[in-house]
Known about the structure:
Distance between the termini of chain A: 32 Å
Radius of gyration of chain A: 17 Å
Bound molecules: thiamine diphosphate
Structural class of chain B: alpha/beta
Number of strands of chain A: 5
Helix content of chain A: 25-40%
Largest interface: A-B, 31 and 30 residues
CATH superfamily of the largest domain in chain B: Thiamin diphosphate (ThDP)-binding fold, Pyr/PP domains
CATH superfamily of chain A: Thiamin diphosphate (ThDP)-binding fold, Pyr/PP domains
CATH topology of the largest domain in chain B: Rossmann fold
CATH topology of chain A: Rossmann fold
Oligomer: heterodimer
Low-confidence stretches of chain B: none
Amino acid sequence: MIMKSSVAELREAARLIRRxxxxxxxxxxxxxxxxxxLSIADILAALYxxxxxxxxxxxxxxxxxxxxxxxxxxxxxxxAALAGRGYFDRAWLTTVRRxxxxxxxxxxxxxxxxxxxxxxxxxxxLSLGLGIALALRLLRKNCGVFVILGDGExxxxxIWEAVMAASAQKADNLTAIVDYNHFQSCGGTxxxxxxxxxxxxxxxxxxxxxxxxxxxxxxxxxxxxMAKRFTGRPTVIIAHTVKGKGVSFMEADNSWxxxxxxxxxxxxxxRELAGGSE
Amino acid sequence: xIQYDKISSRDAFGNALLRIAEENPLLVGIGADTTxxxxxxxxxxxxxxxxxNIGIAEQNMTAVAAGxxxxxxxxxxxxxxxxxxxxxxxxxxxxxxxxxxDVKIVGGLGGLSGNIEGVTHQGLEDVAVMxxxxxMTVVIPADAASTEVITEEIARIRGPVYLRLGRGxxxxxxxxxxxxxxxxxxxxxxxxSDAAIICNGAVVARALRAAQLxxxxxxxxxxxxxxxxxxxxxxxxxxxxAATGAVITVEEHNIIGGLGSAVAEVLGGRRxxxxxxxxxxxxxxxxxxxxxxxxxxxFRPEDMAARIxxxxxxxxxxxxxxx
Lengths: 278, 323
Ligand SMILES: Cc1ncc(C[n+]2csc(CCOP(=O)(O)OP(=O)(O)O)c2C)c(N)n1
């Protein structure tokens, strides 16, 4: 049930995810987090439209690969990908955060088909992913677990508890993806609590490390597929990204961490994401 | 006409904090990537070195706060209610409350004000946890004006306090003349011999409206604000039970462990009385705007008035049968 989308098709899928993120930001309830969501749009397109084995008609399929959105506030991107894959009606997207919606402000595994685990309190996702990975291993299932982490989120101590435990457990079915966009809520990670040397940190904890441009679809796909096959140790993919990627005025402008676009900004963003002639 | 505050309780807190800091050079603020969103912006503009963003790391923030307090500072450690009180619960208990250090735990997004973010960000168990920790004072302002007064008052205590704040601007109840004393209730509507409504937080305005609706139906309820849940004003609880024979609590919290429980503990020990606890009925809620959630989860004044009316008539008729 893996989709064999080409790189060109994945780029198109990412564009549509971005349009949905902007729709959610403008049409759904209250300020959502467009910057954090746009940052991971390409990675999610690659995961949901090619790398992950999953079945939208059977979201609970035991043999599926799993995704943990540890930076749960970026969930509009996941909702867009899930709707794009047909997990639920696209009309749900603009209900995000509204009373009675099945699409919560942060991912809820009991309300939203396709969400593998609840998240939204930062710093917990890698442990959740490790738990899933260990359970799958005990069940002798050959499934991959992908955990998407924010860079600021790595300031949570529990992340590093999980980093140590995952390599101790040789959890090679676990792949962490760091969305390294150099921003957090109050500003730049490099000013608040720098994460460098990022690569050396993970290497010193005995993880297999790949580094990619998180917006280069070929590189994303190739490293995600390598990570899925990698044996003996867990893999981290350090994805160099731009917060707000794809909408010129949101790129690297952290005021878009959580904010509602004006009508004019919405129109501009949608024009930029119109596709076709580039 | 419903009147809203011009600023959020978080900004009101920040305004008061700046004033206190001007008087007390040993005051510092610390946040876990929350210094901006918890109202410490003004303080950090004036005294940049006295506001620390420790990173997204609430346990770290809380223990660092304890270390600074042990070294002579009054520390305001601010994050969102579920993170400051649950994520860092053990650091609060063992390293702040146990040694009785001067740290104010400030939790934003309290009650349903975590609104659109959903369950992960709503503080509906925070009061229960903080209240159960020895040495801890627990305060819940109703609006912006009272937040400023309360923030200045708790600064006078040399010890741990949990200050529960909201998110956006809420219904205005008080003005700058608001008076607050640790352990003291605040009578908002003194007349009323049929029932006593004891409330706090952003639902005080709604409780007052419920009392008006009851009044129109001939049910006279007095209204008491209980901004300090611990120590609770036990005498005020007992007096209002004695004067009315029925107590109702209204709070933006799980009905287990918060104001309703604190009032039940007092009544159980000193004056057993019928008690209706209005709050979140031990369930997880959902994402939506604050007012939508308040309406949906039992805080519509009309719904509260109806529930209170039913409650009063249920045991009044029982009393008649027994008589
Ligand atoms: C435990 C916890 N603390 C604080 C928050 C509030 N919060 C939401 S997003 C965010 C910043 C996240 O930064 P980062 O991980 O770098 O992700 P980005 O949005 O920058 O991609 C914070 C502090 C939270 N959700 N969970």
